[in-house]
Write a structure and sequence with these properties.
Elements lengths: L1 H32 L9 H10 L3 H8 L7 H12 L4 H26 L4 H14 L1 H6 L6 H20 L4 H15 L3 H21 L3 H16 L3 H8 L14 H6 L3 H4 L8 H24 L5 H27 L13 H13 L5 H27 L3 H11 L5 E4 L3 H10 L5 E5 L2 E5 L7 E2 L11 E6 L7 H5 L2 E11 L3 E10 L3
Parallel strand pairs: 1-2, 1-5
Antiparallel strand pairs: 2-3, 3-4, 5-7, 6-7
Length: 505
């Protein structure tokens, strides 16, 4: 009778915890959703949307000229139909996998973590939804959150295979999430490779019969990715002028990559000193967990090992990316670490679950994460809403006529943004005395026969504010040049717009 009563109490507590977590996730989702109702994209987002508007065949063609596989663009194309090409819809598509990630991981935590499971799930959701790097990427029209979801599902499937000898569902999930990860982002491939190394080690140590089936599954994933390998090879060996990854990868850059989870892409949410403190806490938690495992005093050895496996996988991703960058091709761009970010947050949340802390200490940790989240939210809201983009677009809509030409000397990437906001106008990029046409889709330089000095069309020239232009040649060829507007796109490209038109003189 007492056992039945105890079981009933546990069941009620489980339902209560599940309900609380769902409500908590909804609140975090709403916070992120509040950032999507704007008309602001940066160049990579514009490129994503422009590419998703192509046919499936052209998506494959143009994606092979970029630095990413095509699956995300397929997804964006399909979902774009449902949201009628609304920008908020494209941004919402990036929040959806974040919510799914929080749900599946929190469900796993509540089901498998013995002590402080609710606390652990809360910490994970807070970090996934409100950390500086997540706050920016969660609403960005790019593939990063989807890559993180596939990596997370691959991890959970690997864990299930490690402990369950007959889980067909786990193998199906492993294969599908692995294939999806490979076709979403190359750093997702790197991350699942690191997860696989740890999983193979665990299976070998346990002498598990699942080892060969796990290897078969990995082989299936590799076979399914083979059709894209030629495109990957072409991308890695590309010498196209517009190639964006011209990075100087040194040891300092490698070390600073570990700041990314706490600072994000756009601006540091906290000082470098604070980031060092946070990493110090994580290292301290790792040492503490290792010590408890050695002394066999962990409340759950399996969960503690998973925590160390997760942080080990994250660190391994950074290290392998650095090694590849030094030996072969520079690939260690900090935002590319995002597919592995859920591993770091899961590691932190699991390690905290094995520490007995009182409510005051939990409130302190909660407040610390919340402060970090509020700071990140303020940064993200400024980036999403407080830009000069709308004013610039309004100027163009009020002044451009059909047949007008846009030229910029900002970056080739600026053409992507201009093509998104002004799809009815051809825009060109000017550099080193040459004009390059951009069709708004192909993200590279294309030779153009356009001759600025013989055109009778009105030309709108976006010139960097810090660049002095000599218009003497244009003026001597009968052109009138007027400075008509100073503005910016995305608080990144700052420029003066010159109106250039042929006179009858």
């Amino acid at each position: 009778m007492a056992q039945i009563k105890l079981h009933g109490q546990e069941s009620m507590l489980k339902k209560k915890n599940n309900k609380f977590i769902i409500i908590f996730i909804i609140v975090i989702a709403i916070v992120n959703i509040s950032l999507i109702f704007n008309n602001n994209v940066w160049c990579d987002e514009a490129a994503s949307i422009n590419l998703s508007r192509c046919s499936f065949g052209d998506i494959i063609k143009y994606a092979s000229m970029d630095f990413h596989p095509p699956l995300y663009y397929f997804l964006l194309k399909i979902t774009g139909v449902f949201f009628h090409d609304a920008l908020w819809g494209y941004k919402l598509v990036s929040i959806i996998p974040v919510v799914i990630t929080m749900i599946v991981v929190d469900k796993w935590i509540l089901a498998n973590v013995k002590n402080n499971s609710l606390w652990s799930a809360v910490v994970f959701s807070l970090l996934m939804g409100l950390s500086p790097c997540n706050m920016g990427k969660n609403v960005e029209v790019r593939m990063y959150t989807w890559a993180a979801l596939w990596v997370t599902l691959f991890l959970l499937s690997s864990l299930e295979i490690t402990i369950n000898h007959n889980s067909k569902r786990a193998y199906i999930s492993l294969i599908l999430s692995g294939i999806a990860a490979c076709y979403t982002h190359y750093f997702a491939i790197l991350t699942i490779a690191c997860i696989s190394i740890f999983t193979i080690f665990n299976l070998v140590t346990k002498k598990s019969p699942n080892l060969k089936y796990f290897l078969y599954s990995l082989g299936g994933i590799i076979i399914m990715f083979i059709p894209w390998v030629p495109s990957l090879y072409k991308q890695m060996n590309s010498n196209i002028k517009g190639w964006t990854i011209h990075l100087t990868i040194n040891f300092e850059y490698f070390v600073n990559s570990f700041r990314y989870p706490f600072e994000g892409d756009y601006s540091a949410s906290f000082t470098s000193e604070f980031t060092i403190i946070l990493w110090g806490v994580i290292v301290g938690l790792s040492i503490y967990t290792i010590t408890k495992l050695y002394k066999k005093t962990c409340s759950d050895n399996f969960v503690s090992k998973i925590a160390l496996q997760c942080i080990g996988s994250f660190v391994m991703v950074v290290c392998l990316a650095y090694i590849i960058s030094k030996l072969f091709h520079p690939i260690l761009m900090r935002r590319y670490l995002f597919p592995a970010i859920s591993l770091l947050w899961l590691s932190v949340s699991l390690m905290l679950s094995d520490i007995e802390i009182n409510n005051k200490e939990r409130c302190f940790v909660f407040s610390l994460i919340a402060i970090m989240g509020l700071n990140a939210y303020a940064t993200s809201r400024t980036r999403e809403y407080n830009t000069g983009t709308n004013d610039t677009v309004k100027f163009f809509n009020d002044n451009l006529n059909k047949g007008d030409v846009l030229i910029n000397d900002l970056e080739i990437c600026a053409c992507w943004e201009l093509s998104y906001y002004l799809p009815d106008y051809t825009n060109y990029y000017y550099e080193d005395g040459k004009v390059y046409e951009n069709d708004g889709i192909t993200p590279w330089y294309l030779d153009s026969s356009f001759d600025v000095y013989s055109s009778d069309k009105i030309i709108w020239y976006l010139c960097k504010n810090d660049v002095q232009i000599d218009f003497t040649r244009l003026q001597t060829n009968g052109y009138k040049i007027d400075s008509v507007y100073k503005g910016n796109l995305d608080n990144y490209y700052y420029f003066t717009i010159y109106k250039i038109e042929k006179t009858n003189e």
